[in-house]
């Protein structure tokens, strides 16, 4: 920012001028600000407000209860397992997505016949609706008529169909596979864009210096992908953390809370327990966790820092 | 010049904000514009939200509404269909936004009544219509002595059995007791390629399946003042259900099994026994008429008759009270013998009105279910904590199939019900 580098004595005047220019800019940024207020700040505020109320099961606001709802949330015996599930879910999905996407992007960056077609194929899972993709996986894994189970029994790995989506651990695994599958297109394309921004001269210079392929990749290419990777990881973390459709479809029928993440638990509290107040409190916790993750990430990785 | 600009911005901004806020549904109040509903010639619009009982429900309601609107030009009805899975969530959102439907078809109603949101039956139907309901059903619609719901349908569960599979497994008698059902289902599981008994404990119908078994041991879910899930009779029944699962006589993963797809496997002839509804008969007729099956009373511990009865109702949210007259017109029209009996018989349910019963007395399909109705146990829908109990059954009961001890599961459900008081 130029203001930061300006001499001290002019800073005050500069900020006064800034105030004036803010008013002048208001007509242009006003609509965007209003939009942010209406669709981000207001609902978030409303959620926080709801989390401090007692709301009857039919939805009438009864009274304020302070932080009681949060006390209930943290005393919930199901919470530890849910948090553990959430962590596993986010870490595994994001890690695999990024690793696979790195390889895929490297491959798509090489010139080969039919590259355009392959690139388009990679984007398909992104173009399809997540609900649709997940439903296809869900039916494929059905123990009675799922094509995946049929295949496994036909080649003799299984004696009879296995309920991949009927028990907590295998169902989480299936959901993780689906989540990786639908996250890859965006991640791959972000990394691909990063790869194409690397000037050819750098790579040539590395080659001239006698670096081998791995050396070039680790010490020349990877550092230059920092920006692209940072964006990809951050957006994936938020996306995966807040993902509902995949888990709802794959693990939704499993009784109890052993296959729930924070997000699906909020949904269950709302749908089955009809506790709008408790689920608001859970949502606030959810929101806080995302904020903390993002803050830690921005602080340690400094994604905006130039290489 | 600059000043004018600024004012323009403020006005435009305020307008945009107002637009955004109201479209978000937080505006409050009905914006339907029925200020002059009372004046002659004005049209009152009724919002009606109903669940779908079958693929034909929507068309059935649309026909009723079309005929009603033709006869009453001053009333318009907006129909909104929702699945059973979603309807209560949608309703709650609407109540929060002060947009509760004028006519609502639902199961539980006591907590709405307890919070004073519902109009009493006498405000939304004429005396003749209210008096036409069978007394036992009308009684089931009362909270603190006031009737709120207009009973729409009744239904009972019965044991559907596959004759072909029974023969193949060498089972000759239709099971009447738990033990007989267990052994018959075991024979089918062992000797045929099909599953013996279908137990849907997924979140679609866990409460229904549970109450069928609890009722078979003299148990129930409690009454209007007390939710009693964790009782000795219920625990014993839940333990027997668990035994069925452990002995492998049910389909796989009963805890995650939904009723609809499970009944489809019965209809396809791949399941020995399952509890079904009157509609199941119609489904078999259209989807697999060749199925060799029979209908028998529910198998209970001692063989004494007992079953789960379900009654759903129409109710009306008061809102500002201006639409009661129009609602009354609609209800009186709908519950008239001809319209009502056609609706009920098309959906395959049992009628709740005296005039409707007379009209449908000769229906053969309904007979086995009508016979069971006197011994039916109903959900405690008049208890304000029933909604929460229902939700707890849906999300927790399936755990008995994943190995958690039955008494613990019932305790967990009871705790959720108690927390809702």
TrEMBL record, chain A:
Task: Please give the chief subcellular localization of this protein.
Answer: membrane
Domain of life, per UniProt, equals: Bacteria
Query: Which SUPFAM superfamilies does this one have?
Result: MetI-like
Ordered alphabetically, the record's keywords are:
Cell membrane, Membrane, Sugar transport, Transmembrane, Transmembrane helix, Transport
> Where does the UniProt annotation locate this protein?
Cell membrane
Topological category with respect to the lipid bilayer? Multi-pass membrane protein
Task: Please state every residue range assigned to the domain named ABC transmembrane type-1.
Answer: 83-297
Q: Which residues cross the membrane?
A: 21-49, 82-105, 117-141, 171-195, 216-238, 278-298
Family note: Belongs to the binding-protein-dependent transport system permease family.
> What is the official name of this protein in its record?
Multiple sugar transport system permease protein
Automatic annotation (TrEMBL), chain B:
Coiled-coil segments, which residues?
Answer: none
Q: Name one Pfam family in it.
A: SBP_bac_1
The name this protein carries in UniProt is: Multiple sugar transport system substrate-binding protein
Q: What InterPro entries is this protein classified in?
A: Bact_solute-bd_prot1 (IPR050490), SBP (IPR006059)
Q: Which UniProt keywords apply?
A: Signal, Sugar transport, Transport
| Signal peptide range | 1-27
- Protein species of origin: Paeniglutamicibacter psychrophenolicus
């Amino acid at each position: 920012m130029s203001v930061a580098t300006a001499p001290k004595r002019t800073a005050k005047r500069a900020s006064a001028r800034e105030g004036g220019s803010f008013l002048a800019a208001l007509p242009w940024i006003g609509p965007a600000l209003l939009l942010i207020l209406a669709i981000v700040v207001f609902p978030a505020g409303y959620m926080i407000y709801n989390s401090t109320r007692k709301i009857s099961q039919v939805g009438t606001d009864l009274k304020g209860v302070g932080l009681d709802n949060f006390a209930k949330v943290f005393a919930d015996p199901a919470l530890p397992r849910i948090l553990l599930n959430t962590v596993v879910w986010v870490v595994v999905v994001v890690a695999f997505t990024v690793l696979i996407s790195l390889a895929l992007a490297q491959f798509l960056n090489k010139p080969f016949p039919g590259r355009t077609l392959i690139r388009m194929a990679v984007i398909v899972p992104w173009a399809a609706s997540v609900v649709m993709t997940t439903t296809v996986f869900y039916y494929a894994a059905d123990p009675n008529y799922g094509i995946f189970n049929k295949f496994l029994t036909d080649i003799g790995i299984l004696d009879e169909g296995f309920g991949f989506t009927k028990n907590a651990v295998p169902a989480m695994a299936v959901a993780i596979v689906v989540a990786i599958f639908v996250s890859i297109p965006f991640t791959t394309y972000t990394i691909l864009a990063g790869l194409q921004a690397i000037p050819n001269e750098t790579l040539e210079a590395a080659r001239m210096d006698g670096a081998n392929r791995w050396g070039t990749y680790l010490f020349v290419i990877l550092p230059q992908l920092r920006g692209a990777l940072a964006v990809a990881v951050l957006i994936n973390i938020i996306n995966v953390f807040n993902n509902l459709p995949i888990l709802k479809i794959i693990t939704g029928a499993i009784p109890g809370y052993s296959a729930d993440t924070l997000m699906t638990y909020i949904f269950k509290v709302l749908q089955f327990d009809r506790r709008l107040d408790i689920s608001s409190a859970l949502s606030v916790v959810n929101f806080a966790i995302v904020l903390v993750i993002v803050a830690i990430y921005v602080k340690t990785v400094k994604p905006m820092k130039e290489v | 010049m600059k000043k004018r600009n600024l004012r323009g911005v403020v006005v435009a901004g305020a307008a945009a904000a107002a637009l955004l806020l109201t479209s978000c549904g937080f505006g409050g109040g009905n914006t339907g514009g029925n200020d002059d509903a009372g004046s002659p010639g004005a049209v009152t619009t009724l919002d009606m939200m109903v669940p779908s009982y079958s693929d034909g429900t929507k068309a059935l309601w649309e026909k009723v509404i079309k005929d009603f609107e033709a006869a009453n030009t001053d009333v318009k009805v907006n129909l909104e269909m929702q699945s059973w899975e979603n309807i209560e969530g949608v309703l709650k959102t609407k109540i929060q936004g002060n947009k509760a439907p004028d006519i609502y078809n639902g199961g539980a109603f006591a907590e709405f009544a307890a919070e004073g949101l519902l109009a009493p039956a006498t405000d939304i139907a004429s005396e003749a219509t209210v008096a036409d309901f069978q007394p036992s059903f009308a009684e089931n619609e009362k909270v603190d002595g006031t009737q709120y719901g207009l009973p729409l349908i009744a239904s009972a569960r019965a044991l559907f059995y596959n004759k072909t599979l029974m023969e193949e497994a060498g089972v000759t008698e239709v099971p009447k007791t738990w033990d007989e059902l267990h052994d018959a289902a075991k024979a089918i599981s062992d000797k045929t390629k099909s599953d013996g008994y279908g137990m849907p404990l997924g979140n679609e119908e866990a409460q229904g399946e549970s109450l069928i078994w609890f009722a078979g041991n003299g148990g129930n879910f409690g009454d209007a003042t007390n939710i009693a899930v964790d009782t000795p009779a219920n625990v014993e029944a839940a333990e027997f259900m668990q035994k069925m699962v452990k002995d492998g006589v049910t389909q796989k993963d009963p805890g995650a099994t939904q009723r609809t797809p499970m009944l489809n496997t019965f209809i396809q002839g791949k399941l020995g026994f399952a509890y079904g509804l009157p509609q199941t008969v119609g489904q078999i007729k259209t989807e697999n008429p060749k199925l060799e099956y029979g209908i028998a009373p529910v198998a209970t511990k001692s063989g004494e008759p007992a079953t789960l009865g379900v009654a759903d109702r129409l109710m009306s949210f008061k809102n500002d009270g201006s639409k009661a007259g129009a609602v009354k017109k609609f209800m009186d029209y709908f519950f008239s013998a001809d319209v009502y009996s056609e609706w009920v018989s098309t959906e395959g349910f049992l009628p709740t009105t005296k005039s409707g019963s007379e009209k449908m007395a000769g229906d053969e399909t309904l007979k086995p279910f009508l016979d069971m109705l006197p011994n039916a146990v109903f959900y405690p829908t008049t208890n304000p904590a029933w909604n929460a109990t229902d939700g707890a059954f849906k999300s927790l009961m399936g755990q008995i199939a994943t190995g958690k001890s039955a008494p613990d599961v019932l305790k967990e459900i009871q705790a959720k019900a108690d927390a809702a008081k």
